[in-house]
Amino acid sequence: MAALPWDRSPGLREELADFYRDLHRHPELSLQEFRTAQRVAEALAPLKFEVTTGVGGTGVVGVLRNGDGPVVLMRADFDALPVAEKTGLPYASSVRAQDQSGVEVPVMHACGHDMHATCLIGAAALLANSTAEWSGTVVAVFQPAEELACGARNMVADGLFERFPKPDIVLAQHVGPLPAGMIGYGSGPVMAGMDGVQVTLYGRGGHGSRPEAAIDTVLMAANVVTRLQGVVSREVPPAATAVVTVGRLQAGTKDNIIPDTAELGINIRTYDEKIRALVRAAIERIVRAEATASGAEREPDFDWNISAPVLVNDPDATTATVAALTEHFGEQRILPIPQVNASEDAGVLGESAGVPSVYWFWGGINYAGRDLDQVPANHSPEFAPEIEPTLTTGVEALVVAARRWLEHTA
Ligand SMILES: [Zn+2]
Ligand SMILES: [Zn+2]
Predict the structure, then answer these.
(1) Considering only CA atoms, which of 9, 50, 6, 66 is closest in space to residue 410?
(2) How far apart (Å, rounded) are the C-alpha atoms in residues 47 and 333?
(3) pLDDT at residue 218 is higher than 90
């Protein structure tokens, strides 16, 4: 491929850097991305994209129809996190907002989604200024609430694939702790599937001095936590990967009261459907059994309230896309990376449309002699991608990947 048409949009890089700094300074929590959505829509409109806002909540979809040919969907998420920024950057966030439960929290783009949205705007601009060189349709999807793993599903449920051209391929990327300018990729399962369940245990409350008259949910919950440690060590085959974490355990108000309920928040990571079903079933079995063992008079409640599928990179589509990226960036900037145990809801898009997905990571960190483990990564209050060469790399990766699937006319 020829050099990308940056020169046809003079000042674009500077505009994108300003756009990035603006999004970074004004982060919004998941499902509250109103200003961000508006900024994105304003940036897309002059680029000949048909822009639709309010898709699945605050989602924004831009469509650029440019003759016959494949439909390429590029997705960027744009929500921020309840983190107090400590980067010391001149464009650092000091924003505070109310979270879903009404608690005031600090807000920061600690996962780099502001960089994702900015790079997708940049890619849209470069594709729009080179329409004579390709044909097909580009769908730019700006997705809310990735951090709650519900934004992609919300957009699909709101008709993403009925109201807008259905893609032949889904492309997405995430900035992370690789050296700035590098691209890391995997094939097959690249990120874990995630499930979360909120469990409520029921016992019988009473005075702390009279345990014989109570059914102690604290002991019940403690036994559940301990017993759950056996799921991965004793039930999941050693060659498979799974994680079971109890990240929330709440019971009681005072040390001389036996509480009548206890709550557990349990998070699971798996890479295949069979193991996922096994782990889910084991958790329910153990929780119920411990309730029975304690003599509970009421069955526990299970609220499976969060889920993201395994993110699977289609092997053939990945090979083809990585070949194009390698040709553009050179071999020394592309590296295969191992599976990441974090999760992403980008996989919902390809899975729902029944088309291949290709998802890659790109680096935003200037290591400058620092130890790999010492550098703040995603979700850290000090996570601070270098604007360049991160921005240029992220824009070019999207354009090169999209052009791999669009038809060449020049
Ligand atoms: Zn994140
Ligand atoms: Zn993220």
Answers:
(1) 66
(2) 30
(3) yes
pLDDT one-digit tens code per residue, 170-210? 999 999 999 999 999 999 999 999 999 999 999 999 999 99
Of the listed ligands, the closest to the CA of 147 is: 1
Dist. CA 32 → ligand 1 center (Å): 16
Under 8 Å between Cβ of 261 and 199: no
Neighbours of ion ligand 2 (CB under 5 A): 111
Residue 1, pLDDT > 70, answer no
Cα(10) to centroid(ligand 2), Å: 30
317-329 pLDDT, tens digit per residue, is 999 999 999 999 9
Q: Spell out which residues have Cβ within 5 A of ligand 1, the ion.
A: 111
Mean pLDDT of the chain: 96
Cα–chain center distance at 229: 27
Residue 386 CA to ligand 1 center (angstroms) comes to: 18
Q: Which tokens sit at 109?
A: 């783009």
Q: Residue 80 and residue 282: Cα distance in Å, rounded?
A: 34
Which residue in 3, 18, 2, 50 sits closest to 122, CA to CA? 18
The Å distance, Cα 65 to ligand 2 centre, comes to 29
175-187 burial, b at 16+ Cβ within 10 Å, e below that, comes to bbbbbbbbbbbbb
User: Inter-axis angle of helices 113-128 and 34-44, to 10 degrees?
Assistant: 20
pLDDT in tens, 358-401: 999 999 998 888 887 888 999 999 999 999 999 999 999 999 99
Residue 409 CB coordination number (10 Å): 13
Tell me if 184 sits within 8 A of 197, measured CB to CB.
no
For the CA of 113, the nearest ligand: 2
Taking the CA of 175 as reference, the closest ligand is 2
CA torsion, ordered 126, 129, 135, 139, to nearest 10 deg: 50
**Helix (H, G, I), strand (E, B), or coil: what is residue 195?**
strand
Give the pLDDT confidence of 116-170 residue by residue, as tens digits: 999 999 999 999 999 999 999 999 999 999 999 999 999 999 999 999 999 999 9
Please, how many CA atoms are within 13 Å of residue 264, restricted to the half-sphere of its CB? 28
CA 85 to chain centroid, in Å, comes to 19
SS3 of residue 276 by DSSP: helix
